[in-house]
Amino acid sequence: MEVKGTAIKTIPEFVKEKFPEEYSRWFNALPDGSKTIFNEKISSSKWYPIKEALILPTRLIGEMFYEDIEKGAFELGIFSSESAIKGIYRMLVQISSPSFVVNRTSGIMSSYYRPCIMDVTKSSKKMAVLSIIDFPESDVVVDYRVLGWIKTTFEFSKFNSPKVTLLKSMGKGDFSTDYLVEWV
Question: Which of 33, 73, 81, 136 is a Cys-bridge partner for 144, taking CB atoms 3.0 to 4.6 Å apart?
Answer without folding.
Answer: 73
